[in-house]
Amino acid sequence: MIVKSKTGISNIILGLECTIAETEKDFEKIKEISEISKGIDLDINQVQEIDTAYFQMLLSLKAWTEHKKIPFSISGTSNPINEISKLYGVEL
C-alpha cells in the first residue's frame, strides 16, 4: 500500500496482494491518515489477490468515512475485489 496526500485528500494505492499478512500494517497506515484526511480515494487497479480479512478492513474504512461524512471514492477496477464483493453481497 502506498499513501499519497495532496490538498487534504489521501490517495491510497493498494498493492498486488491484499491479504491478512498486510492487514495489520496497512490498517496502521490508514488509521494515521484517516484522522487528518478531508477525503479518501482508494486506487484498486493493481489488486490481484484479496482475502476476507483485508476486504473487511476496506469495508470498515468505507463505513467510517460515511459515519464521519468524509468523501470516499474508488479509482480503477479489480476482478478479485469485484468477486469478493459479490460473495459478500456488498458494493465497496
From TrEMBL:
This is STAS domain-containing protein. It comes from Desulfonema limicola.
